[in-house]
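Posting for a labmate who doesn't have an account.
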Amino acid sequence: MSQNKKDSSSITELIPKVLQVFLNLSLVFLSIILCILLIMELINFTGYLFQGENGEYTVILESILIFFLYFEFITMIVKYFKEHYHFPLRYFIYIGITAMVRLIIVEHSDPISTVLFSIVILILIIGYFIMNLTPRERPESRWFFKHKDKD
């Protein structure tokens, strides 16, 4: 019976490790793709600058914001590995704000959509503010957790 439990526990320990390796390799592959796209966006941006077309400022702004989206995703992947396989929530909020600003710049013809996008940005900023007010580590106080006293 103990051999059966040992085999079961070794399998339950192996599965998360295999999935973690698969996830890590997938993120490395994704980061390589994002780096290539980031370089391509930088090349496109410099091409827009040297073309001399001043009327297409929205295209240049869109290119800059797409560049920052790629940059933020790559930064988030780096932080994932630095913080021991954990995605910080604040990076998702940064990406959301940048994406919404990009939408406002690109699709600003409909005023209702622009107001809704602005409200979403406000909600994300309020969420970020609330997140910064709360402690990052949970305190060890008994006020937050009920400890069971062992006799």
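Reply:
Got it, the structure tokens are right above this. The first helix runs from residue 2 to 51.
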